[in-house]
Amino acid sequence: MSDPLLSVDGIDSGYGETKVLRDLSLSVDRGDVVSLVGRNGAGKTTTLRSIMGIVTPTAGSVTYRGEDVTTLPATETVKRGISLVPEERRIFPELTVMENLEIADHGGGTEADSLSIAEALETFENLRERTDNAGSSLSGGEQQMLAIARALVGGADLVLLDEPTEGLAPYIVQDLMDVVRELNEQGITVLLVEQNVHVCLELADRNYVIDQGEIVYEGTSDDLADNDEVLDRYLGVSV
Protein backbone atom coordinates (compact mmCIF):
# COMPACT_ATOMS: atom_id res chain seq x y z
CA MET A 1 0.00 0.00 0.00
CA SER A 2 1.12 3.56 -0.67
CA ASP A 3 1.83 5.92 2.21
CA PRO A 4 -1.06 8.11 3.45
CA LEU A 5 -1.36 11.61 2.05
CA LEU A 6 -1.54 12.89 5.63
CA SER A 7 -0.24 11.13 8.71
CA VAL A 8 -0.62 12.44 12.25
CA ASP A 9 1.47 10.33 14.61
CA GLY A 10 1.13 10.55 18.38
CA ILE A 11 0.80 14.30 18.75
CA ASP A 12 0.30 16.20 21.98
CA SER A 13 -0.96 19.71 21.42
CA GLY A 14 -2.70 22.57 23.18
CA TYR A 15 -2.51 26.16 24.29
CA GLY A 16 0.09 27.29 26.81
CA GLU A 17 -0.12 25.08 29.87
CA THR A 18 -3.37 23.50 28.69
CA LYS A 19 -2.88 20.18 26.91
CA VAL A 20 -5.84 19.42 24.60
CA LEU A 21 -4.61 16.51 22.47
CA ARG A 22 -2.92 13.43 23.93
CA ASP A 23 -0.99 10.96 21.77
CA LEU A 24 -3.41 11.52 18.89
CA SER A 25 -2.87 9.62 15.64
CA LEU A 26 -4.84 9.52 12.41
CA SER A 27 -4.20 9.15 8.70
CA VAL A 28 -5.88 10.28 5.50
CA ASP A 29 -5.32 8.48 2.21
CA ARG A 30 -5.28 10.39 -1.07
CA GLY A 31 -8.78 10.65 -2.55
CA ASP A 32 -10.63 9.76 0.66
CA VAL A 33 -13.11 11.59 2.83
CA VAL A 34 -12.18 10.99 6.46
CA SER A 35 -14.17 12.34 9.39
CA LEU A 36 -13.14 13.35 12.88
CA VAL A 37 -16.32 13.31 14.92
CA GLY A 38 -16.89 14.13 18.55
CA ARG A 39 -18.74 16.27 21.03
CA ASN A 40 -18.10 19.98 21.45
CA GLY A 41 -14.78 20.55 23.21
CA ALA A 42 -13.39 17.11 22.37
CA GLY A 43 -10.35 18.54 20.54
CA LYS A 44 -11.49 18.47 16.92
CA THR A 45 -10.58 22.05 16.01
CA THR A 46 -7.26 21.82 17.85
CA THR A 47 -6.43 18.78 15.72
CA LEU A 48 -6.99 20.76 12.52
CA ARG A 49 -5.01 23.72 13.84
CA SER A 50 -2.14 21.40 14.74
CA ILE A 51 -2.13 19.94 11.23
CA MET A 52 -2.14 23.41 9.67
CA GLY A 53 0.63 24.80 11.86
CA ILE A 54 -1.55 27.34 13.64
CA VAL A 55 -0.74 25.40 16.82
CA THR A 56 2.60 23.56 17.05
CA PRO A 57 2.44 20.09 18.63
CA THR A 58 4.68 19.56 21.64
CA ALA A 59 5.18 15.87 20.81
CA GLY A 60 4.65 13.57 17.85
CA SER A 61 4.69 14.46 14.15
CA VAL A 62 2.55 15.57 11.21
CA THR A 63 3.61 14.30 7.80
CA TYR A 64 2.14 15.44 4.48
CA ARG A 65 3.16 13.82 1.19
CA GLY A 66 6.06 12.24 3.02
CA GLU A 67 7.38 15.56 4.37
CA ASP A 68 7.51 16.36 8.07
CA VAL A 69 5.46 19.56 8.43
CA THR A 70 5.09 19.45 12.22
CA THR A 71 6.85 22.73 12.93
CA LEU A 72 5.98 24.61 9.73
CA PRO A 73 3.86 27.76 10.10
CA ALA A 74 0.45 27.84 8.45
CA THR A 75 1.74 30.03 5.61
CA GLU A 76 4.09 27.26 4.54
CA THR A 77 1.55 24.48 5.04
CA VAL A 78 -0.88 26.25 2.72
CA LYS A 79 1.81 26.46 0.05
CA ARG A 80 2.12 22.67 0.18
CA GLY A 81 -1.55 22.19 -0.67
CA ILE A 82 -3.42 21.98 2.66
CA SER A 83 -6.22 24.43 3.31
CA LEU A 84 -8.36 24.92 6.41
CA VAL A 85 -11.97 26.09 6.01
CA PRO A 86 -12.67 27.25 9.58
CA GLU A 87 -16.01 27.05 11.32
CA GLU A 88 -16.34 30.85 11.19
CA ARG A 89 -15.54 30.76 7.41
CA ARG A 90 -13.48 33.99 7.43
CA ILE A 91 -14.41 35.26 4.01
CA PHE A 92 -13.76 38.94 3.32
CA PRO A 93 -17.22 40.41 4.05
CA GLU A 94 -16.75 43.72 2.27
CA LEU A 95 -15.35 42.16 -0.89
CA THR A 96 -17.48 40.62 -3.62
CA VAL A 97 -17.62 36.91 -4.32
CA MET A 98 -15.38 37.43 -7.35
CA GLU A 99 -12.88 39.50 -5.37
CA ASN A 100 -12.70 36.82 -2.67
CA LEU A 101 -11.89 34.24 -5.33
CA GLU A 102 -9.38 36.48 -7.09
CA ILE A 103 -7.42 36.93 -3.85
CA ALA A 104 -7.31 33.15 -3.43
CA ASP A 105 -6.09 32.79 -7.00
CA HIS A 106 -2.98 34.84 -6.18
CA GLY A 107 -1.92 32.88 -3.13
CA GLY A 108 -1.98 29.51 -1.43
CA GLY A 109 -0.66 26.31 -2.90
CA THR A 110 0.85 25.45 -6.24
CA GLU A 111 -1.17 22.33 -6.98
CA ALA A 112 -1.23 21.98 -10.77
CA ASP A 113 -4.83 20.82 -10.90
CA SER A 114 -6.28 23.53 -8.62
CA LEU A 115 -9.62 24.91 -9.72
CA SER A 116 -9.70 28.02 -11.85
CA ILE A 117 -12.21 30.68 -10.83
CA ALA A 118 -14.40 29.68 -13.77
CA GLU A 119 -14.32 26.02 -12.69
CA ALA A 120 -15.15 26.97 -9.11
CA LEU A 121 -18.16 28.99 -10.22
CA GLU A 122 -19.26 26.06 -12.36
CA THR A 123 -19.14 23.79 -9.31
CA PHE A 124 -20.75 26.27 -6.93
CA GLU A 125 -23.75 27.36 -8.97
CA ASN A 126 -25.20 29.64 -6.29
CA LEU A 127 -22.00 31.69 -6.30
CA ARG A 128 -22.03 32.00 -10.07
CA GLU A 129 -25.23 34.03 -9.79
CA ARG A 130 -23.78 36.29 -7.08
CA THR A 131 -20.28 37.19 -8.25
CA ASP A 132 -20.91 40.91 -7.68
CA ASN A 133 -22.49 40.45 -4.25
CA ALA A 134 -20.53 41.35 -1.12
CA GLY A 135 -19.59 38.45 1.09
CA SER A 136 -21.60 39.93 3.95
CA SER A 137 -24.79 39.73 1.86
CA LEU A 138 -24.56 35.98 1.35
CA SER A 139 -26.50 33.45 3.38
CA GLY A 140 -24.65 31.19 5.81
CA GLY A 141 -24.72 28.35 3.31
CA GLU A 142 -23.43 30.57 0.50
CA GLN A 143 -20.62 31.86 2.72
CA GLN A 144 -19.63 28.26 3.47
CA MET A 145 -19.60 27.46 -0.25
CA LEU A 146 -17.46 30.54 -0.91
CA ALA A 147 -15.00 29.54 1.80
CA ILE A 148 -14.61 26.09 0.24
CA ALA A 149 -14.38 27.50 -3.28
CA ARG A 150 -11.69 29.90 -2.15
CA ALA A 151 -9.64 27.02 -0.71
CA LEU A 152 -9.82 25.11 -3.98
CA VAL A 153 -8.94 28.12 -6.14
CA GLY A 154 -5.98 28.62 -3.81
CA GLY A 155 -4.62 25.22 -4.84
CA ALA A 156 -5.73 22.95 -2.00
CA ASP A 157 -5.18 19.25 -2.52
CA LEU A 158 -6.32 18.41 1.02
CA VAL A 159 -9.23 20.42 2.46
CA LEU A 160 -9.80 20.50 6.22
CA LEU A 161 -13.46 21.33 6.87
CA ASP A 162 -14.23 22.49 10.42
CA GLU A 163 -17.92 22.05 11.31
CA PRO A 164 -19.14 22.99 7.80
CA THR A 165 -22.82 22.24 8.55
CA GLU A 166 -22.96 24.20 11.82
CA GLY A 167 -25.99 26.50 11.87
CA LEU A 168 -27.21 25.57 8.39
CA ALA A 169 -30.77 24.61 7.50
CA PRO A 170 -31.25 20.91 6.65
CA TYR A 171 -31.76 21.53 2.93
CA ILE A 172 -28.56 23.61 2.82
CA VAL A 173 -26.71 20.82 4.64
CA GLN A 174 -27.78 18.45 1.87
CA ASP A 175 -26.55 20.87 -0.80
CA LEU A 176 -23.22 21.14 0.99
CA MET A 177 -22.90 17.37 1.23
CA ASP A 178 -23.57 17.09 -2.50
CA VAL A 179 -20.77 19.58 -3.18
CA VAL A 180 -18.31 17.69 -0.96
CA ARG A 181 -19.15 14.46 -2.80
CA GLU A 182 -18.65 16.13 -6.17
CA LEU A 183 -15.30 17.60 -5.15
CA ASN A 184 -14.17 14.26 -3.81
CA GLU A 185 -15.10 12.63 -7.12
CA GLN A 186 -12.86 15.22 -8.77
CA GLY A 187 -9.93 14.02 -6.64
CA ILE A 188 -9.99 16.42 -3.68
CA THR A 189 -9.12 14.76 -0.37
CA VAL A 190 -11.17 15.87 2.64
CA LEU A 191 -10.68 15.71 6.41
CA LEU A 192 -14.08 16.58 7.83
CA VAL A 193 -14.61 17.69 11.43
CA GLU A 194 -18.20 17.41 12.58
CA GLN A 195 -20.50 17.00 15.54
CA ASN A 196 -23.23 15.80 13.17
CA VAL A 197 -22.53 12.07 13.01
CA HIS A 198 -25.18 11.54 10.33
CA VAL A 199 -23.24 13.79 7.93
CA CYS A 200 -20.05 11.87 8.67
CA LEU A 201 -21.69 8.49 8.12
CA GLU A 202 -23.01 9.61 4.74
CA LEU A 203 -19.84 11.24 3.47
CA ALA A 204 -16.83 9.54 5.02
CA ASP A 205 -14.88 6.48 3.94
CA ARG A 206 -13.45 6.21 7.45
CA ASN A 207 -14.31 7.84 10.77
CA TYR A 208 -12.29 8.69 13.86
CA VAL A 209 -14.15 9.38 17.09
CA ILE A 210 -12.38 11.79 19.44
CA ASP A 211 -13.09 12.25 23.15
CA GLN A 212 -11.15 14.43 25.59
CA GLY A 213 -8.30 14.86 23.12
CA GLU A 214 -7.84 11.18 22.35
CA ILE A 215 -8.93 8.93 19.49
CA VAL A 216 -11.25 6.35 21.02
CA TYR A 217 -12.52 4.64 17.87
CA GLU A 218 -11.65 4.20 14.20
CA GLY A 219 -13.81 2.46 11.61
CA THR A 220 -15.73 2.62 8.37
CA SER A 221 -19.11 4.33 8.28
CA ASP A 222 -20.87 0.96 8.20
CA ASP A 223 -18.91 -0.23 11.24
CA LEU A 224 -19.57 2.97 13.19
CA ALA A 225 -23.27 2.93 12.33
CA ASP A 226 -23.48 -0.58 13.77
CA ASN A 227 -21.59 0.25 16.97
CA ASP A 228 -24.31 1.37 19.36
CA GLU A 229 -21.92 1.50 22.33
CA VAL A 230 -19.56 4.02 20.69
CA LEU A 231 -22.42 6.10 19.30
CA ASP A 232 -24.14 6.33 22.66
CA ARG A 233 -21.07 6.70 24.90
CA TYR A 234 -19.05 9.21 22.93
CA LEU A 235 -21.54 10.91 20.61
CA GLY A 236 -24.85 10.63 22.44
CA VAL A 237 -26.78 9.52 19.36
CA SER A 238 -28.35 6.46 17.79
CA VAL A 239 -28.72 5.76 14.07
Q: Concise description?
A:
The chain contains ten helices and ten strands. With 239 residues, it is of the alpha/beta class. Helix 3 (97-105) packs parallel to helix 6.
Fold and architecture overview:
36% of the residues lie in helices and 26% in strands. With 239 residues, it is an alpha/beta fold. It has a single domain, classed as P-loop containing nucleotide triphosphate hydrolases (Rossmann fold), CATH 3.40.50.300. The strands form 2 sheets. Strands 6-7-8-3-9-10 form a 6-stranded mixed β-sheet, with helices on both faces. A hairpin with a 2-residue loop joins strand 4 and strand 5. The two termini are 32 Å apart.
- Rg from Cα: 17 Å
What share of the residues does DSSP label as strand, in percent? 25-35%
CATH architecture: 3-Layer(aba) Sandwich
Overall geometry: globular
Low-confidence stretches: none
| CATH fourth-tier homologous superfamily | P-loop containing nucleotide triphosphate hydrolases
- Helical stretch tally: 10
String of helices and strands:
EEEHEEHEHHHHEHEHEEHH
Here the CATH topology equals Rossmann fold
Question: Tags for this entry?
Answer:
239 residues; alpha/beta; Rossmann fold; six-stranded mixed β-sheet; four-stranded antiparallel β-sheet; 10 strands
